[in-house]
Specification:
Elements (H helix, E strand, L loop, with lengths): L4 E9 L17 E2 L4 H18 L6 E5 L1 H12 L2 E2 L1 H6 L8 H10 L5 H5 L3 H13 L1 H7 L2 H13 L10 H9 L5 H15 L2 H11 L2 E5 L7 H5 L4 H4 L15 H17 L5 E2 L11 H7 L3 E5 H8 L14 H4 L3 E5 L2 E8 L1 H10 L5 H22 L6 E7 L12 H13 L3 E3 L2 H7 L4 E4 L20 H18 L10 H10 L3 H5 L9 H18 L44 E4 L13 E8 L3 E8 L12 E7 L27 E6 L4 E7 L5 E4 L4 E4 L2 E7 H4 L6 E10 L2 E6 L5 E4 L2
Parallel strand pairs: 1-3, 1-10, 1-11, 2-4, 3-5, 6-7, 7-9, 8-12
Antiparallel strand pairs: 8-9, 13-14, 14-15, 15-21, 16-17, 16-22, 17-18, 18-19, 20-21, 22-23, 22-24
Helix pairs in contact: 1-10, 1-11, 6-7, 8-10, 19-20, 22-23, 23-25
Length: 744
């Protein structure tokens, strides 16, 4: 019997708990929220995703809603939630304080300007003024109407294009400027109206059978770390752990029960699937998940690989080798019972999350469908009796900010193609498991302890700042345990503060790995939740909670923090490169030191290209204080291939300049032309075609397609930059090292 290829999309909708406990944990007349993202993502990302799907009734999908998101949406719908952005938006122009005006100029452009600001001429005009003339100039020169328009546009731009045919919204978009307080009040009412439709629409589509809604533990904690912070050493045996071991497995059933109850109340049925926060799993958490009644969970292919002691390799097209291991559900066997688990295809999920936004919508959709068709062909060729299930699971909100029109053209092209393709069938996870129960088994104790990030927990523990936060949490948890009279019934404030502090998001932003311009606010929120525990117990607050967990000053060198998709125009757009790796050159010691014309080097990747940016001293010009030629030389560690030395005169015989390299991209900085070459026998270099892009304006930007380098996914590369004048070595960077690059 020949099966279609079954595909399970799971969209994960999550926002941290932005509500400050200072406003009271239980409902009060007004809830103070520190950040606006529940409200703004609520108007842009949650409702439109399922409304688009509803237009393609053959396609079934799964959406995960985190309880802390549901509760915060309900606060905004009730009109009891106010964040600083909303408060400013509803303040009469003439009553804005100086501090509010500073805040507005600094934060009301917090959006991807390519997709959310540039399409709106008035919003783009204000953005360009701030970028080109600076915040001080805006403060000194803007009129009240400028503030009024910015307040309106910050809220309007986050309303999804699917709703632009609403007569009121269409009128505001056409109006463009001279917005009044009354306009902004109506925009706020429209936001609440959109938010109020989110849960009912999900429930309606679940009742109709097109959607499955799943849930996450209450405040999105990393359950394996609540069970035992020592679980961090399963994936990283030499991990530096917090001073105190956090072992409060008894909190796990509390998070699960609260999530279960919220789901049952809002959806009128019990949940079947659980999305463990950050797809983090371990043997220790399985009994509580089973005992609560969940039937299936999901995790990442890296976790499956570590569990099976099998590394998933991909071919040159990016398709998994030995796909039958990944594209099937498994049954986790425990003494408490069995639990099904599916593992997502990491690369396909990342293509949607991080890469397709940089491609034309129809091309991106065709690429994904092409990958799925290739998997379907592998399934047919395998003549497997068991059907395959490809799980594509990812963040369902943040990626769309980088897509034109919030991803609508991409999703429409994708959904139409999937509806027309008879060999591909979209299902909910529960639908598949009911028809084809898991036959492959994994003993529960064999399950790897890890998350979707490299199969480890290093994103949330092991760094000095992250560990310090765990120690603070441990002290607060011990304090709560020392008050047996403080039950959830008679002291809910203490327990709600604990649950909030146990959420994963604070640890995500602490220390190395991730940063944003709101790190200090996340730090403050974490400490406020801990503060709330001591306050509810009438205990003195430890002095250390009054100081930030870490210093939030700008960092120097760092490795890439995520995929990037810069526009190659030589302008170095700050948002395009905010997740890139950075190496400071101008302030380094040695040959480049402070006299260097090149001040900073940025680098990053996506699934299509390697990206490089060089920042120059102001006024630097090629052929004057800047050499005319830039050479990118690619080194392939531990790979057998023909390599050749740097083809320049006067190259010092010192590492890494005396290494042998395989690819060379020479950029003429005067003409912005390129020559691409590949190493041959007898130290020869042979010309090759390249689709690399280069642009030189206020900085130099480069994009080099992976196709030029012909390297398979998951390969390590190293790069050195060598400056030259008329073929003679001038200098190189970075100093005494190579840039480490990992092909996605």
């Amino acid at each position: 019997m020949s099966h279609p290829l079954y595909i399970a999309f799971i969209w994960h909708q999550h926002q941290p708990l932005y509500k400050s406990p200072g406003s009271g944990v239980s409902l009060s007349p007004s809830q103070q929220y520190r950040l606006p993202w529940v409200r703004l993502h609520g108007t842009k990302d949650y409702l439109d995703l399922v409304l688009l799907l509803e237009q393609y009734p053959k396609l079934h999908q799964t959406v995960n809603l985190v309880p802390s998101l549901i509760l915060q949406l309900e606060d905004y719908i009730a009109g009891t939630a106010f964040d600083p952005y909303l408060t400013a938006s509803l303040t009469p122009d003439e009553q804005l304080t100086y501090q509010q005006r500073e805040f507005i100029i600094q934060h009301f452009f917090d959006a991807n300007h390519h997709t959310l600001i540039d399409p709106h001429p008035r919003y783009a005009q204000l953005y360009q003024q701030r970028q080109e003339k600076g915040q001080a100039w805006c403060l000194a020169n803007w009129e009240l109407s400028d503030y009024g328009d910015l307040l309106a546009w910050h809220n309007l731009a986050w309303i999804d294009p699917l709703f632009w045919d609403d007569p009121e919204i269409a009128a505001w978009l056409k109006q463009g400027r001279n917005f009044t307080l009354g306009d902004r009040q109506r925009i706020y009412s429209k936001q609440r109206e959109i938010l109020s439709r989110i849960i009912p629409q999900h429930r309606k589509m679940q009742d109709a059978g097109q959607l499955e809604v799943t849930i996450t533990p209450y405040t999105h904690p990393i359950l394996p770390l609540l069970a035992d912070t020592n679980s961090g050493r399963v994936a990283v045996p030499n991990m530096t752990l917090p001073k105190q071991r956090f072992q409060w497995a008894e909190d796990i059933p509390r998070h699960l029960r609260k999530a279960w109850d919220i789901y049952q109340d809002r959806f009128g049925q019990i949940p079947r699937g659980l999305w463990p926060s950050e797809q983090s799993v371990s043997p220790a958490i399985l009994p509580d998940i089973i005992n609560q009644g969940f039937k299936w969970i999901c995790s990442d292919e890296t976790v499956l690989g570590s569990t099976l002691k099998h590394l998933f390799h991909r071919d040159g097209a990016g398709n998994v080798q030995q796909p039958e291991l990944l594209y099937r559900p498994y049954r986790l066997q425990t003494a408490e019972g069995d639990l099904s688990i599916v593992f997502r295809d990491h690369r396909l999920s990342d293509l949607i999350g991080f890469t397709y936004s940089a491609m034309p919508a129809k091309q991106a959709a065709a690429d994904l469908v092409g990958h799925l068709q290739a998997i379907a062909k592998m399934q047919r060729d395998s003549q497997s009796e068991q059907p395959w299930l490809v799980t594509i699971a990812l963040d369902g909100e943040n990626c769309w900010e980088f897509y034109p029109q919030d991803g609508k053209p991409f999703l429409e092209a994708l959904y139409q193609s999937l509806s027309d393709e008879p060999h591909l069938k979209l299902v909910t996870v529960s639908e598949f498991l009911e028809e084809f129960p898991a036959t492959a088994t994994i003993p529960g104790g064999q399950l790897h302890s890890g998350s979707w990030v490299d199969g480890s927990f290093t994103t949330w523990i092991g760094d000095p700042a992250k560990n310090r936060a765990w120690d603070y949490l441990t002290e607060a948890r011990i304090m709560l345990a020392s008050h047996p009279e403080a039950t959830e019934e008679n002291n809910p404030e203490a327990w709600e503060a604990l649950y909030a502090a146990e959420g994963s998001d604070w640890f995500w932003w602490f220390g190395a790995g991730h940063s944003s311009n709101q790190d200090a606010i996340f730090d403050r929120l974490f400490r406020e939740h801990l503060f709330g525990i001591y306050k509810a117990l009438n205990e003195p607050v430890p002095p250390y909670l009054k100081q930030p967990v870490e210093n939030h000053q700008a960092q120097g060198n760092h490795t890439p923090q995520g995929f990037i998709h810069p526009v190659i125009d030589g302008r170095g757009d700050e948002q395009d490169w905010d997740k890139a790796g950075r190496i400071e050159i101008g302030g380094a010691r040695g040959t480049m030191h402070n006299s260097s014309v090149i001040q900073r080097l940025w680098y990053g990747v996506d699934h299509l290209n390697f990206y490089l940016r060089l920042d120059f001293k102001s006024g630097a010009a090629p052929g004057q204080d800047l050499p005319t030629e830039l050479n990118l030389l690619w080194f392939y560690p531990e790979k057998a291939m023909v390599n050749s030395p740097v083809p320049l005169a006067d190259v010092p015989d010192a590492a890494p300049l005396n290494y042998l390299f395989h690819h060379l991209l020479e950029v003429n900085l005067l003409t912005q032309s390129i020559q691409f070459r590949e190493a041959g026998d007898n130290h020869q270099w042979h010309p090759r075609f390249s689709r690399a892009q280069v642009a030189l304006n206020s900085c130099l930007e480069l994009a080099v397609p992976w196709a030029d380098l012909q390297v398979p996914p998951d390969s390590p590369l190293r790069l050195i930059l060598v400056l030259a004048d008329e073929g003679r070595f001038s200098n190189y960077l970075p100093e005494n090292t190579l840039i480490p690059i990992e092909v996605p």
